[in-house]
Amino acid sequence: MPCRYVIDIERRLVVSTGWDRVTFAEMKAHQDKLASDPDFNPEFDQFVDATTVSVLEASPDQLRTIISRRFFSPTSRRAFVASNLHVLALGRVMEIHAKLTAGREQIRLFHDRVSALQWLALENSLA
């Protein structure tokens, strides 16, 4: 599966990484595995590195399903980083849906890791 995560308890952060072609089923499986991990805390922030994802195989409705699943706290910050234009466009769908849904997590889309890490106040934490 072209998705993995690491839970950094000290930094109160989940780092999710995707690569190559990522499908809706793989994103959902990633979420399910994370939610059942005993180290997962919904109050943690999340850094999603999709800079090496070439294609997200998910419809806008499927992306709304992914973003609508409530795993993180509404106060958690979730930074999504991508460089591929297709992936950025689908990431934008997720970001807009989150903003329009009252009481949802703070999700922001970034074109570069540095900006995302600054927003999470982690600019010196992840190289």
Structural class: alpha/beta
Counted up, domains total: 1
CATH C-level class: Alpha Beta
- Gyration radius, rounded: 13 Å
Number of strands: 5
First-to-last CA distance? 24 Å
CATH architecture: 2-Layer Sandwich
Blueprint (SSEs and pairs):
Blueprint: E1 3-8, E2 13-23, H1 24-36, E3 45-57, H2 60-68, E4 77-82, H3 85-100, E5 106-110, H4 113-119
Parallel strand pairs: 2-3, 3-4, 4-5
Antiparallel strand pairs: 1-2
Helix pairs in contact: 2-3
Overview of this protein structure:
There is one protein chain. The chain has 127 residues and is α/β, with parallel strands linked by helices. The protein has one domain: Transcription Regulator spoIIAA (2-Layer Sandwich). Helix content is 35%, strand content 32%. The chain contains four helices and five strands. The protein has a five-stranded mixed beta sheet, sandwiched between helices. Strand 1 (3-8) and strand 2 (13-23) form a beta hairpin. Helix 2 (60-68) crosses helix 3 (85-100). The chain is globular. The two termini are 24 Å apart. The relative contact order is 0.17. The mean pLDDT is 87.
